[in-house]
Amino acid sequence: MDQWFFAEGNSQQRGPLPADELIALYHSSRIGLDTLVWRDGMAQWQPLETVAAEIGLDIAPAAEAVEVIAPGPTLPPALPAAPAASAAPADPAPPITPTAAPPPRQGLSGCAVVGIVAAVVAVLVLIIGGALAVLAVPAYRDYVARAKATEAIAALEPIKAAVAEFASEHGRCPVNDDEGFQPAESYADGAVGAVRIGRFDNGHCGVEAELTVPGSTSLDGKLLWLDYDGEQQHWECSGEPEDKYLPQHCRG
Fold first, then answer.
1. Are 183 and 194 in contact (CB under 8 A)?
2. Which of 76, 79, 105, 238 is deepest in the core (most CB within 10 A)?
3. How do residues 116-144 score in pLDDT, each as one tens digit?
4. DSSP letter at 240?
5. pLDDT band at 58; cut points 50, 70, 90
6. Are the C-beta atoms of 36 and 6 separated by less than 8 Å?
7. Residues 250, 243: Cα–Cα separation, whole Å
8. Compositional bias (Low complexity) at which positions (predicted)?
9. How far is it, in rounded angstroms, from Cα 30 to Cα 151?
10. Nearest Cα to 158, choosing from 182, 123, 132, 177?
């Protein structure tokens, strides 16, 4: 049975756990369809939605919108009947002296008013849309950078296990040339460009991974360090990227 990991809040790795527990977390709203998940054999972390069919997660379709028909306008009451004409003869009206008609008042036509209103609304939409874009684009870039860093650290998990096993069996730190390991560039995959294996200045075994994220000045070319304390059998994570791009357990 496959064992799954998930990233809680895109910062804290949780697992391993079986698929049915992953489904239970989704139904309890602890995780969503956009939560990043991973299992052994996957090249990189993926949203839960993309592996729903694989683990047997049924996603309920969105409820159909119900069209609401507004009631028709209320008709105005009928006009009162005109009063009956008097039978008595009326005094003759004075003669009407013809006068010149006043010039028609100049004003905006209905189409012109509609056009002005539409133009004002369009300008407001552009201003609001631009302001939202200024706020949304940096936030989205930070989200993508955090996801890439999390993906890279998850890809190093098998290497960490191999380093710990080698150190336990041989009493020394492995290097890339040792049996069971590969040249640094051979580990290139996803956001990881190269992985160097050896011993840090403090005497601990460790892994140094170089990130490759084209277009991201926050991550591209930056280094991640995984430090293994053999006596405590404990790993410490740190790196060159800003803390906001790293998982919680890798922040300084």
1. no
2. 238
3. 888 888 888 777 766 665 657 889 999 99
4. S
5. confident
6. yes
7. 8
8. 81-90
9. 21
10. 182
- The model's pTM is 0.47
Q: Count Cα neighbours of 31 within 13 Å in the Cβ-side half-sphere.
A: 24
- Residue ranges per structural domain of the chain: 4-55, 152-250
Gap between the Cα atoms of 198 and 173, Å rounded: 6
Write the burial class of residue 45 (CB in 10 Å: 0-12 exposed, 13-18 middle, 19+ buried).
buried
152-250 in CATH: which number? 3.30.700.10
Euclidean distance between CA atoms 179 and 182, whole angstroms: 8
Sign of the dihedral defined by the CA atoms of residues 124, 128, 130, 131, in that order:
positive
Strands of the sheet containing 4-8, edge to edge, are: 12-17, 4-8, 36-39, 46-47
Architecture of domain 4-55 in this structure: 2-Layer Sandwich (3.30)
User: What's the pLDDT at 74?
Assistant: 41
Question: What's the rounded Cα separation, in Å, for the pair 75 and 237?
Answer: 74
Distance CA 164, CA 172 (A): 10
CA-CA distance, 183 to 195, in Å (whole number)?
Answer: 8
The pLDDT tens digits of the residues spanning 83-93 come to: 444 444 444 44
